[in-house]
Write a structure and sequence with these properties.
It is a single chain. Strands 3-2-1-9-10 form a five-stranded parallel sheet. It has a three-stranded antiparallel sheet with strand order 4-5-8. It has a two-stranded antiparallel sheet with strand order 6-7. It folds into two domains: 25-103 and 215-335, Rossmann fold, CATH 3.40.50; 118-207, no CATH class. It has helices at 41-56, 77-87, 103-115, 126-132, 170-177, 197-200, 215-225, 241-251, 286-296, 306-320, 330-335; strands at 28-31, 60-65, 97-98, 119-122, 165-168, 183-187, 191-195, 205-207, 230-234, 257-261. By secondary structure, the protein is an alpha/beta fold. Strand 6 and strand 7 form a beta hairpin. The chain binds zinc ion. Zinc ion binds at residues 122-124, 148-149.
Length: 336
């Protein structure tokens, strides 16, 4: 499969507001951490990979704080993450965007989908959905939604229930945009990918029952607004990609290129996280932390100051190519 031609950017339906970070630069990448705690060795891999890929391509690298899920955010964590990145000599090439300040833009996107019949209110409780389908999915996912509240002509609507959340009507999106059942894309490291979102996830939530914006909607709106052309992020987020591409199609937004970096695994074989013992980066030794992250990406260790190390890794990144990355970085696992 020719990865370079697998994703054709969709034309915009309507002019979008001029983004703060608009640029003529062909490549715009981003690092988008959730401020649920400080960076650890796993999240630094995604930060470094996205930074190197942007710089290796002569592009811009933007930082976005994904604090849309406010109950999970820890006060001060965003500032700490930015401080950690600065300690590693990685600075956003534009203003840092915070999702908690973007509610109006998310509402505008939802309104557009409602107007075009591609979003509908759902009155189901979590228990009702889980009772209908109990399969649990990974991060940022929920039980498969069986389409209970889908409106006519696709279903029977709320049937007297009060609206709780808003969902994307995948069938309506597919009909209006003539999409195939399977969403296909090509990951720069993982190769061809596909997912049938309708059967594997169902009509997913855009605005949650608690009033918070869903991760998928916020990411898609912000990636487009920031002009992101390349998304380099951890492989744990790979299974969000098909949903995000569907939303891009629905909103008439371009689809960026995707590359998912190898995860750092904890001793139990699970993705490294705060829950299984990930330690915050040691700010006193940024080169040590960066060397571990670089090793995970197949790059050699450096002993020079951090800015020079980043320059050398950037050159190495070009030579190495993402296809050379280890599927599961053992180097960093051993270093933990
Ligand atoms: Zn429902």
């Amino acid at each position: 499969m020719d990865c370079s031609s697998s994703i054709a950017p969709a034309p915009a339906l309507a002019p979008t507001p001029e983004p703060a970070c608009a640029s003529a630069t062909a490549y715009v990448g981003r690092f988008a951490p959730s401020p649920t705690g400080p960076l650890h060795s796993g999240s630094l891999v995604a930060a470094l990979a996205s930074w190197l890929d942007a710089k290796a391509n002569g592009g811009q690298w933007l930082v976005r704080i994904e604090d849309v899920d406010t109950p999970r955010c820890i006060p001060g964590a965003a500032e700490l993450i930015l401080q950690q990145l600065a300690q590693c000599a990685m600075h956003s090439d534009g203003p840092v965007l915070r999702q908690s300040e973007r509610s109006a833009q998310y509402q505008a996107a939802l309104d557009a989908l409602i107007t075009q019949g591609m979003a509908y209110p759902c009155g189901c409780s979590r228990k009702e959905i889980e009772a209908a389908q109990s399969k649990q999915l990974a991060r940022h996912s929920a039980a498969i939604y069986p389409g209970t509240c889908r409106p006519s002509p696709y279903g029977k609507g709320l049937q007297g229930k009060a609206a709780r959340a808003w969902r994307l009507n995948i069938q309506a999106v597919s009909d209006q945009h003539h999409l195939l059942a399977k969403t296909e894309w090509c990951d720069a490291r993982l190769g061809p990918q596909q997912e049938n979102v309708a059967t594997e996830i169902g009509d997913f939530v855009l605005r949650r029952a608690d009033g918070l914006w869903a991760y998928q909607l916020a990411v898609v709106v912000d990636d487009a607004w920031q002009g992101i052309t390349h998304v380099v992020r951890g492989a744990d987020l790979c299974d969000n990609t098909a949903r995000q591409i569907l939303l891009q199609r629905a909103l008439g937004l371009p689809t960026p290129h995707y590359c998912h970096t190898p995860l750092v695994l904890a001793a139990d074989g699970e993705k490294l996280s705060k829950q299984n013992g990930a330690q915050a980066l040691d700010l006193a030794h940024p080169l040590r932390a960066l060397n571990a992250a670089a090793a995970h990406l197949g790059l050699s260790a450096k002993t020079c100051p951090v800015p020079q190390a980043l320059l050398q890794w950037t050159a190495q990144w070009v030579a190495l190519g993402s296809s050379q990355w280890p599927a599961h970085g053992s180097a960093l696992r051993q270093a933990l």
